[in-house]
Structure formats: structure tokens, C-alpha cells
Please model this.
Amino acid sequence: MSSTVEQAVSELSVPVPWGEIRGKVWGPDHGYPVLCLHGWLDNCGTFKTLIPLLPKECRYVAVDLAGHGLSSHLPLGVLYGVTTHMVHVRRIVEGLQWKKFSIMGHSMGGNVAGMVTKIHLMQLITVFTQYTGTIFLLFLAWYHIWSKLCFLQFSALYPEMVDAVILLDSFGFISTDSKNLSKVMRQGMDEMLHHEKKTEEKKRVYTYEKAVERLSAANPTLSEQSVRILLERGLVQVEGGFVFSRDLRLNFKNIPCISPEQSLEMQSKIQASVLVVLGDKGFAATFPESNQQLPSSKLLKAYRDRNHTVVTVSGDHHVHLNDPEAVAPLVSDFLRNKVLSQQLLA
Model:
């Protein structure tokens, strides 16, 4: 029998006060639970090619975070930010009735995962990969920044719940310079209020092929197959064509943020072993050291100083989706050696 996931995929819906969190489920009903969190403006389809290559003993639940994919958008007046996503993770786990689990996250989802950490029984797998030029990239960089605080706070609140964390394309911590905090907070509030004053805007309607072109242009590292996978949940059919399903408010600046000093202090609290897998065309290569709010070398040095492992692989930002064979052995070995083997001993 194959050691990788071959079970049928089922659809998931977790009720929440504003609607539902949707997602996909792979693996046996009583398999070891792994929560899978996608990146900014992506959806749970980002794991479609990777999960089938992972150990069959696990039950993988990949969700569309609020405002993404097929999940409900947050009500007007509610920001997409640190505390809201922290509560969403808690709601999802409560809905699944999980007491202990591991998390695998890509990009923004990796930042989520990195913060939802059991301090003494986890290992981080971080794949750094590349985004290339366009204003879209700047939005992505910001989303990396604010999402990190959320999950360390969750870790502090619920350290007993998370066994292990797998991070795909995430430094774990990126921060905002203290001098810019007030500016960023003001911009986030102003954008939300300005949006609410507008009359309801109709989303642009695309043909399917034009939507493929649009997503490909915004994410040039995605293969055409990967683009079409993400559009399975990233589009909604309407009269005359398709609209993107994501909430436009995801582009707003998010108010909560942390300083570089706070990032390093939070990182110092991690007591588990860490494996950092760097893409050779990764995030660090895209953003020069001088342009990063918190230089990657400080974070990586801190990992090494604490006897963690830093490895480089060939790949881009969506390497887990474009080329899952490059990532699957690392994730599989980690799950078997650090999680599943411990379950057998328990």
C-alpha cells in the first residue's frame, strides 16, 4: 500500500457567526490532524498537489481563510487583521473538535502557523521563495508583516494544542519599523472608513481565460496549472462571466504590527527545533537586505545560534504547488520523525 494520501477529497464547512469557513479534507477520519493554511489571496487549493504526496496516516484539513476562496467575507466594519485571524483559527479548531494538532502554512498561512506554536514540541519548516516585481508584491510584503503577531499570541494562549508547525515560504517574523507604526495604523483605519462610504461597487467580470491572465500577471511565478488550480476556488460564476471570490478589503493596510525588536524577542521564545528551508529564488532574494524591515540575516542567524537547521532548495514562492516533489520529502520526513513516531510511543 502506498505511504502517501490516496483517500477521496471531501468538502468542509465550519459554521461561524458571519457565515462559514470552507475547505477541503484529505485522509482518514481518525488520522493525525494537520491544519493547512494558505497564503494571501490564495485559497486551500494551494495544497492540492502537495498533500497527495504526504503520509497517509494524517488527516489534512485545508481551509479557505475568511475573505478568501469560498469562505464568507467578514462584515463591514471588521478589519482583516491579527486578532481576527487568531480567533478564526481557534474557531476552526473548535469546530473540528481537535484537542491537539499540527499546522502547515504557506506564505501568510505560514506566518499564521509560525505564531500558533506549541513552544516545547514543534519544528518549523520554512520555504523561502520568490515574488517578482509589480505593486501586487508590495501588498504581499505587508501581509507578511502583520500576520505574524497573530499566531505567536495564539501560541501564548493555547501552547498545549499545537504539536508541530510546517512553514512554507515564511520568515516566521517580519516587522514594521517603529518610526512607521503610527503612519501604517492611520492608513489602515482611513482605508476602511473610505471604503465603507462608497456605494456598493460591482466587481469586474472576466471571461475564464482573462481571469487566468490576470492571476498569472499578478503571480508570475505560478505555473499555468497552478493558476487554474487556485481559480477552482478563486472564481465565482456570475452573469456574463466570472468574478474573483476574495474580499477586496484584503488589500487594505492592517493596523496591528510589531517592531523588529519585538520580532526577535518573540523568536527567542521558541524552544522547539527548527528546520528552515530556503528557496534559492526566495523572498530574501526578492527583497534586498537593505529594504527589509527586519533583515533576514538576523532571523536566520538566530535560528542557527539556537542549533536549528537552515537548508536551501531550488524553487520559487509557490514551489510547494508548482513542484511539490521538491517539498514533499522534507514535510513527509518531518511528520514521520517528529510527529507520527511520537504518536506511536504515546
Summary: Residues 135-157 form the longest helix (23 residues). The mean pLDDT is 79.
